[in-house]
Amino acid sequence: MSHAGNPLSDPKKRKAQTMLVHGGMERSQHGETSEAIFFNSGFVYPTSAGAEARFKGDEPGHIYSRFSNPTVEMFQQRMALLEGAEAARATATGMAAVTTAVMAQVRAGDHAVAARALFGGCRFVIEDYLPRWGVDTTLVDGRDPANFEKAMRPNTKLIFVETPTNPTLELVDIEAVAKIAHAHGALLIVDNVFATAIWQKPLELGADIVTYSATKHIDGQGRAMGGIILGSKELIEADIHTIIRQTGPSISPFNAWVMLKGLETLPLRVKAMTESAAKIADFLADHPKIETMRYPLHKSHPQYELAKRQMGAGSTLVAFSVKGGKAAAFKAADALAVIAISNNLGDAKSIISHPSTTTHQRFSDADKLEMGITEGLLRLSVGLEDAEDLIADLAFALDQV
């Protein structure tokens, strides 16, 4: 029976969980139920004229898997449906997504502004990499939108932020910063990896481009690397596509397939992990050996009202400082039996890290303190284990301090 006329024939009319199972699906002549992995590098054209037309863009079809592949395209379309974006391009890693998205918007002589609280790799791109190519950059305290306004120049083309930030879970007011960027003819790029597309929609708040490390919640099980850039067709299909096509920071079809499988369970995993994270935040907030605790939707967060306004929930990360500095933080982390010491996040397994000596170790002590990274700070990525077990694990570990 034909489903013509059924409103759900339009993927955009389906709810998120349905889109994440079926979105972007393209079946081969074999009618497979699970998405196929197209491992080929190239594609055959029916005629020479057909090859010419495809290269010129006059006819649809794939050309070369460095920038066009059926499995990758399914992942891109599914993510675009979830994000509410017109287009998307996948990359080999999250940092490839950030670097490509940023570099596509600037030229020598331009200026970019970013919040100073960033993941170490992202801050490298802004603070070290862009200036090598003649792009001036300014870092500001992203908690106050007025700081972005003060930093804007006539040649500012770009603002880049993470929110919540890595690892201190500070927030940036996306809507306010987007208005500032657009008033000065600049674009806003938001790295949304901590909040996920389940709890925050930067494009709806005015951002122009959203990036993710798909390695994190999208895969969610520590299996594969990947990244993705989302936005309007005008932005994605211009310089962003060109940079991917010509420089090759491409995701493999196999990794794109792994991400497709991850998307099917993304809402289930993120919601369960978020529920546990909120319980853990409550436990840590009142613990006598904790100096500070940050969780966006906990009432103790300095930007709690902003979190309520732009996030649907607090997501899966908790940051807390142990009294006693580095030695105390190390002792607590080493005593954990369920929670593993690692530097990934968004995984089904709970993971703890000490940012000062790992992801942000290359920064000076002054820079770390400016970003709020103290010697006692630990970043906890809450997984799918039983929340009571995680709390008991943390309680025992803190008792050893």
Q: Explain this structure to me?
A:
The protein has about 400 residues and is an alpha/beta fold. The chain folds into 2 domains: about 5-260, Type I PLP-dependent aspartate aminotransferase-like (Major domain) (Aspartate Aminotransferase, domain 2, 3-Layer(aba) Sandwich), CATH 3.40.640.10; about 265-400, Aspartate Aminotransferase, domain 1 (Alpha-Beta Complex), CATH 3.90.1150.10. About 40% of the residues lie in helices and about 15% in strands. It has 14 helices and 12 strands. The strands form 2 sheets. Strands 1-7-6-5-4-2-3 form a 7-stranded mixed beta sheet, with helices on both faces. A 5-stranded mixed beta sheet has the order 8-9-12-11-10. Helix 8 links the parallel strand 5 and strand 6 (about 210-215). The longest helix is centred in the last third of the chain and has 33 residues, at about 255-285. The protein is globular and about 75 Å long. It starts with 15 loop residues before the first helix and ends with a helix. The model has no long low-confidence stretch (mean pLDDT about 95).
